[in-house]
Q: What sequence folds into this?
């Protein structure tokens, strides 16, 4: 039997509170489904949280005897709880990672996905940049094709090359669109976090709608890649 598990990272002042058996908490997700407020029964409700997908999956095991272990789950999510007035270093690294992603996409590299910039252990720091190759989606070269009106095979090659050129153009347009969408989402999330830090209400509708558009664009990119 498998379980759904996640890693919960708390700031030092909350970590000490968890030793109290009476300590209880709840996660109130906002409309984006990736962040929200951290509510607990021992401190004021000033903490917020954000979920990240881990670049590496961690397997969870349990044992009743110490000899035989049973796998519980593949842990692929981390929930980071923090004080908005004292953001942790990983959030700053995440912003830097997104800037690197935007730069590499502008140079023709395929995006590696929206994941945490670090894994759970020191060797997995900046794991996404080490795991995924940052090569262009398609090499920029063209193969000479002999054109002959009397050769059917050559004519078919020309048609196939023309279709690939159209698909490549669509792929380039979609990647440029995805780049713009990710940049806009990055700015909206920064504005949201600043508003939360000031204690203001935040409308998540625009972020949620933009995330849906990004997923649709990414799906279209994947479809075009299969045609190449």
A:
């Amino acid at each position: 039997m498998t379980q759904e598990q996640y890693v919960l990272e708390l700031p030092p002042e909350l970590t000490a509170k968890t030793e109290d058996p009476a300590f209880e908490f709840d996660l109130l997700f906002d409309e984006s489904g990736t962040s929200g407020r951290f509510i607990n029964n021992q401190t004021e409700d000033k903490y917020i949280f954000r979920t990240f997908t881990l670049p590496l999956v961690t397997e969870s095991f349990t044992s009743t005897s110490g000899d035989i272990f049973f796998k519980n789950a593949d842990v692929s999510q981390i929930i980071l709880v923090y004080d908005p007035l004292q953001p942790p270093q990983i959030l700053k690294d995440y912003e830097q990672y997104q800037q690197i992603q935007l730069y590499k996409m502008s140079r023709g590299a395929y995006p590696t996905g929206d994941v945490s910039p670090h894994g759970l252990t020191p060797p997995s720091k900046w794991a996404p940049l080490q795991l995924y190759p940052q090569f262009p989606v398609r090499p920029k070269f063209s193969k000479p094709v002999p054109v002959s009106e009397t050769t059917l095979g050559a004519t078919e090659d020309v048609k196939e090359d023309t279709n690939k050129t159209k698909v490549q153009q669509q792929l380039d347009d979609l990647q440029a669109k995805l780049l713009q969408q990710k940049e806009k989402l990055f700015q909206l999330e920064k504005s949201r976090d600043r508003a939360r830090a000031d204690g203001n209400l935040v409308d998540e509708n625009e972020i949620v709608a933009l995330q849906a558009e990004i997923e649709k664009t990414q799906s279209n990119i994947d479809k075009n890649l299969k045609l190449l």
